[in-house]
Design a protein that fits this description.
The protein is mainly β. It folds into 2 domains: about 5-105 and about 190-460, no CATH class; about 475-549, Macroglobulin (MG2) domain (Immunoglobulin-like), CATH 2.60.40. The chain has 7 helices and 28 strands. Strands 6, 7, 11, 12, 13, 15, 16, 17 and 20 form a 9-stranded antiparallel sheet that branches. A 5-stranded antiparallel sheet has the order 5-4-14-19-18, with helices on one face. A 4-stranded antiparallel sheet has the order 25-24-27-28, with no helix packed on it.
Length: about 550
């Protein structure tokens, strides 16, 4: 266990005891998920909560957590981020009031839990409900299925819909006795809801007003895993991040902090693949140590930016509808041991957290090409991209870590973008343990795994045969000066939302439908310019651009 963890474990014991947790453990990974959003560690002891292979007693990591930051209309920096909760936390269990973007101790206590379900729990429920066994009491569903947090308390101004579920009778109320059941990803999932607005922030940042819904999930059985064996060593983390505040957040960044400790954590190396949007940690002695993994984190979903003239998703196009900002920044810093340059150590205030997200050191100087990334003359967004960014500012020579390893922590971030009040942004990561006992080159194996993962349809929802939205729907006339006709091409069943969005990402018109085939929206009051119409249902969405004359 790290000396630094021992030093402050006592300071956080009171908070840590309040947290509940479960483990994803359906495959070869045993990964801890805490109710306040912390991943892969035990806040009481400071010990790792990420074991792989499961049952081996070998752990390969410390804490991981969400970081979010940006600037409000008045130029005030807002940051919600944490590492090991040295000075307290930035996140607490529970949703936020829709009007005030606040919460209270009763709500924090009520939601101080995680909900863990297996696919088999849901399948058994569906079968037994169909046979009448749930209704007559001969079959008792899983406790977490019965207590699933599908609905918030609207009397206290919480969102009426908090967790995804199949609403069999479309009444908007989660009721297993009516046949409703949770919708999860993977063969096993852990769900929790948390916020950044309960107490002052340990990071020193001011609260944004975030409500965060996390579904951590993994695969462990079936044809999908048989055809993609790397899934046995992979866990997924799907975040929905909602801005419940009344203000927009400019120059926003969102990302995942991670402290991967490979074997002797004092000789860890780090790096990234800038084009394929993944980061990794590996051991300096991997070439001589048998069967130590490389730990990789690849980004699957990210915030959108369709007006910055940058190819954010590396597909050769700029500002196409729905363009995602895949990992735009990769930064590292060192544990605050004696002798480590202060500018390259743990952040101690909100400005420093934000600077790391945007590839700046603590002293405000940018990450630079070459060496250890500090003090050079050419700035860059990506530390140690090896040969994946030789067309970037650092030039043709691959840049990998060449100094002695150290106890490093990383932050992979996406930004900048405009985070509007009421907006829902998505982040999703796959966390991969890559072993290679044959050639002892886990980094090479990791690259193969990431490519295989990107070729696999990982967005599988359990318990519902979801009808995907047709990616080609029509809008007419375009340009238009008043009415805009929208036709989906085929009927879409279930809840459907249609939004008209301006070039800054602000939703100007929003309409909800129970089922959808076609609609006409009056855009006559909008100013002349470029807009987008987005049609979404569940996790599926597609977008078209139109011109208002």
């Amino acid at each position: 266990m790290k000396t630094t963890l021992l030093l402050f474990a006592g300071l956080i014991t009171g908070l840590a005891h309040a947290q509940t947790f479960e483990y994803l453990d359906i495959n070869q990974v045993k990964a801890r998920v805490n109710s306040g959003g912390d991943l892969h560690w035990d806040p009481v002891t400071g010990n790792s909560g990420y074991e792989c292979p499961k049952g081996s007693g070998k752990t390969w990591g410390g804490a991981a957590n969400l970081w979010v930051g940006g600037v409000d209309n008045g130029g005030q920096l807002k940051v919600s981020a944490q590492t090991y909760r040295q000075g307290g936390g930035d996140f607490w269990p529970g949703p936020l009031n829709l009007i005030t973007a606040t919460t209270n101790s009763a709500t924090v206590s009520q939601y101080n839990r995680v909900w863990k379900l297996n696919k088999t729990d849901i399948d058994d429920f569906i079968t037994n409900f169909a046979n009448g066994n749930v209704q007559n009491g001969s079959f008792i569903p899983a406790a977490n299925l019965l207590s699933w947090p599908g609905n918030g308390d609207i009397a206290q101004n919480y969102d009426s819909q908090l967790a995804p579920y199949m609403d069999v009778n479309s009444d908007g109320i989660y009721d297993p006795m009516a046949g409703d059941y949770p919708l999860i990803k993977g063969d096993q999932a852990i769900y929790t809801i948390f916020n950044d607005s309960y107490l002052p922030h340990g990071s020193g940042g001011q609260a944004i007003g975030l409500e965060i819904r996390l579904m951590a999930y993994a695969y462990g059985t079936g044809t999908l895993v048989a055809n993609n064996p790397f899934l046995n060593y992979t866990t997924f983390y799907d975040y929905t991040i909602i801005n419940r505040s009344s203000f927009a957040l400019y120059d926003s960044y969102m990302g995942l902090f991670n402290d991967s400790d490979i074997g002797n954590y004092m000789d860890d190396y780090v790096g990234c693949d800038a084009m394929d949007a993944y980061a990794y940690t590996y051991n300096a002695t991997t070439s001589t140590v048998t069967n130590e993994p490389a730990i990789g984190i690849t980004q699957i979903q990210s915030p959108t930016n369709t007006y910055d003239l940058i190819d954010n998703d590396h597909d050769g196009l700029t500002d196409e509808p729905g363009e995602q900002i895949l990992m735009s920044n990769f930064m590292y810093f060192n544990n605050s041991f004696a002798g480590v340059p202060l500018a390259q150590t743990d952040p101690s205030n909100a400005t420093e957290y934000y600077q790391y997200m945007s590839s700046y050191w603590k002293d405000g100087t940018p990450l630079t090409c070459g060496g250890n990334g500090y003090g050079g003359s050419i700035s860059t967004n990506y530390a140690y991209p090896a040969n994946t960014y030789t067309t970037g500012p650092c030039g043709a020579a691959p840049w990998s870590e060449g100094t002695s390893g150290s106890d490093k922590k990383i932050i992979m971030a996406s930004g900048p973008f405009l985070f509007q009040p009421g907006a829902h942004e998505k982040l999703e990561y796959a966390y991969i343990a890559s072993f290679d006992s044959i050639t002892n080159n886990p980094l090479h194996n990791l690259d193969s795994v990431v490519n295989a993962l990107r070729n696999m349809n990982s967005n599988v929802v359990t318990g519902i045969k979801k009808q995907a939205i047709n990616n080609v729907f029509t809008i007419s006339p375009n340009p238009t000066n008043a009415l805009l006709n929208i036709n989906s091409g085929k009927a879409i069943n279930g809840d459907v939302k249609i939004e008209v969005i301006d070039a800054l990402g602000k939703t100007l018109i929003s309409e909800d439908y129970k089922d959808f085939n076609q609609s006409t929206i009056n855009v006559g009051l909008l100013s002349s310019g470029i807009y987008f119409v987005k049609i979404s249902s569940g996790d599926n969405a597609t977008t078209k651009k139109f011109i208002k004359e």
